[in-house]
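User: Fold this; tokens only.

Assistant: Input:
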Amino acid sequence: MNDSAGVRLWNGAMLPTPGVFQIDPAHTTAGFVARHLMVTQVRGRFEKVEGTVHIAEDPLDSSANAVIDTGSITTGAAERDAHLRSADFLDVEAFPKMSFISRQVHGGATGPKWALVNGQMVRRRRGGSGKFVCVGELTIKGVTRPIELDVSIDGVKGDPWGGERLALSATGEIDREAYGMTWNVALEAGGWLVSQKVQIEIRAQAIRMT
């Protein structure tokens, strides 16, 4: 076991030293949560994801990007998965990929409350030690919208093969209708079959390349 890892202390948190990390799909979950009938949480994930994380000398200059195969969506129910792949939602035949690219990284409790992203003002949440706010752009079905992710560096560890792994997690929220996924069914008692807001949950592991 290689217990050594390139880490440094920054604002009270242990962070990786500068370098490029490649996402390991086998140990990464790009998940989401939506509500059914306005009460029940339904969880799903995308099984095919790739991307890189660039850790800069100044951690706030770091960046990340990812590409997800939309057809790899799974919720554990074949009929529901087929519907999510259809033109009502992801339309995977026309849009086989979705992507994310970061634009700004903020950390701690300092800095402006608002950030300009893709021509729109986005309110930033505040981070703490070892936690960051990543403001970027998410593209789904050819529509690019700003998104804000709360990111946590969960650790850096050497692996048994002499490599180094970075673990991180991120959460956020999107409005699916903003990406053209407007399908729904009105309920007799009021409300909708599928929630408009979708929670994003990412648990990632990345391998140091440089």
